[in-house]
Design brief:
The chain has 13 helices and 4 strands. It is mainly α. Helix 1 runs parallel beside helix 11 and helix 3 runs antiparallel to helix 4. The protein starts with a strand and ends with a strand. InterPro entries: HGSNAT_cat (IPR012429).
């Protein structure tokens, strides 16, 4: 990663997950920033044992507000692709797309390796890894196909995934099923990535291989939204069409939920329709308020998050681990990590409820990043991948 200036608006190598020029949508930057700030909030509670239900993931089927954050980000990746890869000369883009994807994937692996760097048990899937794969697939599809084909691919991916998960027998287990440990996706992950899966389960992964297919459909839905926003339709009409498309997507989600339940860990087709529908409506609202009506003053803190999205996600995952490597001795002689010591010292004594203390710790972490990223934005420091 390297710092750059916001003045390089025509640089074809700029990070497609950000927007730093007036040629890009302020509403998209804001929507991205809100999403990233929410991601930092839910990923960094003061105490994982005490989090309010909306700030945690659904146990299995169903969804919470937290379950919306990652698919929103992948949707935004798709919208950004439609803007960043729009130059006429696309001959050299494929290599740059692959390079950027490899960098993102490597950053995700680094986070999974740090601090022990044990390659024998490192988790290979992960959030940044899925972003890399979705970016790679969606970018190549975007530069090689037209809008009609992209729409068909969304349908093919969602229906195909439903058929695989619902009707293909699972080797060693029998009929197709949607249980955590015995579904087809879990079997594929164990077969190909045994010993390198999510440490909480060890035998299946929420960012597994098969569920990356519908995640690509999430990114493609963002590309379709970006194509609409770039069209010559009147601005207010574009906002209406985004919202209406979101309504139809939500309707489809709840119909499909009846036989292919909404589930983030499986990234079911109904989950894609639900999250893409809500993302379409969220982007429509931001676009109408900011780019159509001109209410822009409130956006700066979120834009600061949005233009350095990958940077803040990477560092917000790295810094707590570094702090926990620093040991602080307790009065009883026991040692705890510096992060835990800060939480126990600065938050726990001042809140009767451990849930409120945990939330206060998370909010403080987000506010610290608001300050850092706000300063970086003022200094025009944008770190691109």
């Amino acid at each position: 990663m390297q710092p750059t200036s916001t003045s390089h608006t025509n640089d074809p190598n700029r990070d497609t997950l950000r927007s730093v020029s007036s040629s890009r949508l302020l509403s998209l930057d804001t929507f991205r920033g809100i999403t990233v700030a929410a991601m930092i909030l839910v990923n960094n509670p003061g105490d994982w044992g005490h989090i309010y239900a909306p700030l945690g993931h659904a146990h299995w089927h169903g969804w919470t507000p937290t379950d919306l954050i990652f698919p929103f980000f992948l949707f935004i990746v798709g919208v950004s692709i439609s803007y960043a890869l729009q130059q006429k000369d696309r001959a050299g883009l494929a290599g740059k797309i692959v390079k950027r994807s490899l960098i993102l994937f490597s950053l995700g692996l680094f986070l999974n390796l740090f601090p022990k760097f044990d390659f024998t048990t490192v988790r290979i899937p992960g959030v940044l890894q899925r972003i890399a794969l979705v970016y790679l697939a969606c970018s190549l599809i975007y530069i090689k196909t037209d809008t009609r084909t992209q729409g068909w691919l969304v349908g093919i991916l969602l229906v195909g995934y439903w058929l695989l998960m619902s009707f293909v027998p699972v080797p060693d287990f029998g009929p197709a099923n949607l249980e955590a440990e015995t579904n087809l996706g879990a079997w594929i992950d164990r077969t190909l990535l045994s010993g390198h899966l999510w440490k909480t389960s060890k035998i299946w992964d929420p960012e597994g291989l098969l569920s990356t297919l519908p995640a690509i459909a999430t990114g493609l839905s963002g590309i379709l939204a970006g194509t609409l926003l770039k069209s010559r339709r009147p601005e207010a009409e574009k906002a209406v069409w985004l919202f209406v498309a979101g309504c139809f997507s939500l309707l489809g989600a709840y119909v499909w939920n009846g036989f292919f339940p909404i589930n983030k860990s499986l990234w079911t087709s109904s989950f894609v329709l639900l999250t893409s529908g809500l993302a379409l409506q969220g982007l429509a609202l931001c676009y109408w308020l900011i780019d159509v009506q001109g209410y822009k003053k409130w956006t700066k803190p979120f834009v600061a998050f949005g233009v350095n999205a990958i940077t803040v996600f990477f560092l917000s995952g790295l810094i707590p681990r570094i702090l926990n490597m620093i040991k602080v001795q307790q009065p009883d002689g026991a040692e705890i990590g510096a992060k835990e010591w800060l939480y126990q010292t600065l938050f726990v004594p001042y809140f009767e409820s451990p849930y409120n203390a945990s939330l206060a710790g998370a909010l403080t972490f987000v506010l610290i990043w608001f300050g850092i990223l706000g300063w970086m934005y003022q200094q025009k420091i944008i770190i691109k991948v």
